[in-house]
Specification:
One of its GO terms (molecular function) is polysaccharide binding. Keywords: ATP-binding, Disulfide bond, Glycoprotein, Kinase, Membrane, Nucleotide-binding, Serine/threonine-protein kinase, Signal, Transferase, Transmembrane, Transmembrane helix. It is a single-pass type I membrane protein. InterPro entries: EGF-like_Ca-bd_dom (IPR001881), EGF_Ca-bd_CS (IPR018097), Kinase-like_dom_sf (IPR011009), Prot_kinase_dom (IPR000719), Protein_kinase_ATP_BS (IPR017441), Ser/Thr_kinase_AS (IPR008271), WAK-like (IPR045274), WAK_GUB (IPR025287). The structure is a single chain. About 35% of the residues lie in helices and about 25% in strands. The protein contains 21 helices and 38 strands. It has a six-stranded antiparallel sheet with strand order 3-4-5-6-16-9, with no helix packed on it. It has a six-stranded mixed sheet with strand order 25-29-30-28-27-26, sandwiched between helices. Strands 7-15-10-13 form a four-stranded antiparallel sheet. Helix 10 packs antiparallel against helix 21 and helix 14 packs antiparallel against helix 18. The radius of gyration is 33 Å and the shape is globular. The two termini are about 55 Å apart.
Length: about 750
């Protein structure tokens, strides 16, 4: 084992052991002061690539390297494509104003390939009684950007303790940054709403800082704001002692179109940089690295040079002579005078033991390295998928903690036999669903996305947030999720009888009876009404359709697939968002105005009622057209008193024609082109209950439908103080993880 450690230490020192390698272009300075300046960066004309020009301020001693409009650079790394800078701290002196706004900048242009690293930095606010928002800068030019990128709140109970070195919401708060930009807007608001500041700190600060540096300096940054041991109103002395800048990490990449002279595509090996013995990673932009066994600057012609392992401080060949080779080395056995039988014996024994130990050692080292890489990768995905914030959301409410848990990837691989092909239940363009058996013998359905794009990840996170706070017998239960993969995995209760669409339009051997269809419609209406008005926050599903209504063995309905759903505050009636839904079920008013309301789900439910009555698909082929909408076709037949022409004959045979006519009138009201003329889901639920229980006659039921459609009174449930507190945390999670849809 010691010999293995020696080899590993030798490999780690390889970069430092070789002769100097190219850093900058020939004839160009390699450093400004103590900061190395590798190409494509540079500060002299002809020494930098477009978009990577810097300034070397020689008026300071030592010289200072500056980025953009004067931000000081501490270091530039080719290994992880980062630039470490000194960014400003935003200081606000509290007076009588209750709201402050400012801007944070890394000294960069609004467009470019250098932005704030979301992986390495956190957004921090220090002060008492404030909520801090990080928002897109007004000049970013992207109207589709989210309103808030990050937010956190800091409270105080008396004067903050100078010895406190934490930042968890008491006098100091921190949060991740969801989107890397060159500039941001910063908004600070007073939570106490009290201009009189006799007992309050006079200063608020906000900044974007390197996460690792901040962990080591939390106490210093708190005292920098709270002025440890000084009077609150000694403003002049306080201001003179303040730290004005902190380290911030930027990340950079090459633009595949602009920087075509630095990165090329090799049909055999893929992307690589201009230097031989290099490779590139292209994902939106390109990042270049030297191949294994080489080091240097891959952005310069012949910039990646061989590492001479034989010149390492720790000699790699203990019992032989080291021979350097391009990208590697080999050990040659020293020649000795030995008899032929002895030579054969020595070779055989040495080869045998060498092969045995080499195979054992290589296998062990490879396995250890694979395990270490896999663990780091899982930790990286867990943080990227907002695992820490989801843990906080679950632990903050006992009800959610009892229903939802975070699974490890190992647990789900064991439950699905490593996602065996035979465990696949179904899937579509967005992902695959596997059948799994957990360690407690529960049978579950595990949803795994195919497409690795940020939108799919955000939809998965959105579904976790919504389902973790819902508890209804007709909403599919979410047992938990796994965030250790590039795209999160969702774990649901196993629904064995398929989707409603299969039973209505598929090859089901047992068609649904009218009684079952009516009960399924009522259960679905109850679930949607619960989402709209009875959950802790209002949820608009946005993709209500038969394929998203699952049926158990007893034909109990379960509403599923909340990836496209949006949650809003209970006092809001709608939200502007990009149009999303399924053709045939999409609300025309939402399609043309982009305003999503609860009535959009009502329209989609009206299409489901029409399917239950007719067993016709939402879009079908007719004599006059290949793509006829069931909604318009159904409404025209109702208004022309030709409902019997499209009513499913099975309903008539079962004696349900009278009840079906009431349901048809209800569907007509739901399919009104104007949302204000549609009933609420609570009113729809009431009518369906009356029909199922046969409480009123036909005429009064139809009258109820028409009256509910025209006198729409939104239903609002009561909310307790605990739910109000939890809602703010849930909203923070949603805003930190989703992009506008």
């Amino acid at each position: 084992m010691p010999s293995v450690l020696v080899v590993l230490m030798a490999l780690e020192l390889a970069v430092a052991a070789v002769a100097a390698v190219p850093v900058a272009l020939p004839g160009c300075p390699k450093a400004c002061g103590s900061v190395t300046v590798p190409y494509p960066f540079g500060f002299r004309q002809g020494c930098f690539h477009a978009g990577f020009n810097l300034t070397c301020d020689v008026t300071h001693h030592p010289h200072k390297l500056l980025l953009g409009d004067g931000v000081e650079v501490d270091a530039i790394s080719l290994a992880d494509n980062t630039v470490r800078v000194r960014s400003k701290i935003l200081n606000y002196q509290y007076n009588t104003s209750l709201e402050y706004g400012g801007s944070w900048s890394a000294g960069l242009a609004a467009t470019g390939t250098i932005v704030v690293s979301t992986q390495h930095n956190v957004f921090v606010a220090v002060g008492c009684g404030l909520i801090a928002h990080l928002v897109p800068s007004h000049g970013d030019g992207d109207d589709r950007a989210p309103r808030y990128l990050s937010a956190c709140a800091a409270l105080c109970d008396g004067i903050p303790d100078p010895s406190d070195t934490s930042c968890s919401g008491i006098g100091c708060c921190q949060t991740t940054i969801v989107q890397g930009l060159p500039t941001y807007g910063v908004q600070l608001k007073d939570l106490d709403q009290t201009p009189y500041v006799n007992q309050r700190n006079m200063w608020w600060t906000a900044f974007i800082v390197d996460r690792e540096w901040f962990v080591r300096n939390i106490g210093a940054m708190r005292n920098n704001t709270f002025d440890d041991g000084r009077e609150w109103f000694d403003q002049q002395q306080h201001a003179s002692s303040k730290v004005t800048s902190v380290p911030t990490v930027l990340e950079w990449w090459l633009d595949l179109e602009r920087d075509y002279d630095l990165v090329v595509f090799d049909p055999k090996s893929g992307w690589r940089c201009v230097s031989s013995n290099s490779f590139g990673v292209a994902a939106g932009g390109a990042k270049c690295h030297c191949s294994e066994g080489y080091q240097g600057n891959p952005h310069i012609l012949h910039g990646c040079q061989d590492i001479d392992e034989c010149q390492l401080p720790v000699y790699p060949c203990v019992h032989g002579t080291c021979i350097n080779m391009p990208g590697t080395y080999r050990c040659a056995t020293n020649k000795r005078i030995i008899s032929l039988p002895g030579l054969i014996t020595a070779i055989a024994v040495t080869a045998g033991f060498g092969l045995l130990f080499s195979l054992m050692g290589a296998a062990k080292i490879t396995n250890k390295l694979k395990q270490r890489r896999a663990k780091k990768l899982r930790q990286k995905f867990f943080k990227k998928n907002h695992g820490l914030l989801l843990q906080q959301l679950i632990s903050s409410n006992n009800d959610i903690a009892e229903r939802t848990r975070i699974f490890s990837l190992e647990e789900l691989e064991q439950a699905t036999n490593k996602f065996d092909h035979n465990r696949i239940l179904g899937g579509g363009g967005h992902g695959t669903v596997y059948k799994g058996i957990l360690s407690d013998q529960r049978i579950v359905a595990i949803k795994k996305a195919k497409i690795i794009v940020q939108r799919e990840i955000d939809q998965f996170i959105n579904e976790v947030v919504i389902l973790s706070q819902t508890n209804h017998r007709n909403v599919v239960k979410l047992f938990g999720c796994c965030l250790e993969t590039e795209v999160p995995l969702l774990v649901y209760e196993f629904i064995s009888n398929g989707a409603l669409s299969f039973h209505l339009h598929g090859q089901s051997e047992n068609p649904l009876s009218w009684k079952d269809r009516l009960r399924i419609a009522l259960e679905t209406a109850r679930a949607i009404a619960y989402l709209h008005s009875a959950a802790s926050i209002s949820v608009y599903h946005r993709d209500i359709k038969c394929a998203n209504i699952l049926l158990t063995d007893t034909l109990t309905s379960k509403v599923s697939d909340f990836g496209a759903s949006r949650s809003i505050a209970i006092d809001e009636t709608g939200i502007l968002t990009a149009v999303q839904g399924t053709y045939g079920y999409l609300d025309p008013e939402y399609y043309y105005t982009s305003r999503l309301t609860e009535k959009s789900d009502v329209y989609s439910f009206g299409v489901i009622l029409a399917e239950l009555l007719t067993r016709v698909t939402p879009v079908f082929s007719s004599h006059s057209s290949e793509g006829t909408s069931l909604a318009s076709h159904f409404v025209s037949h109702i208004r022309d008193n030709r409902f019997s022409d499209i009513l499913d004959a099975q309903i008539v045979e079962e004696g349900g024609a009278e009840d079906a006519e009431v349901v048809a009138r209800l569907a007509e009201a739901c399919l009104s082109l104007k949302g204000e003329e549609r009933p609420t889901m609570r009113q729809v639920e009431t009518v369906l209950e009356d029909v199922q229980n046969s409480r009123v006659n036909l005429s009064s039921q139809i009258t109820r439908v028409n009256r509910n459609a025209t006198n729409d009174q939104p239903y609002k449930g009561s909310k307790g103080g605990e739910e109000t507190r939890l809602y703010s945390l849930e909203k923070e999670f949603i805003e930190s993880s989703e992009i506008p849809r």
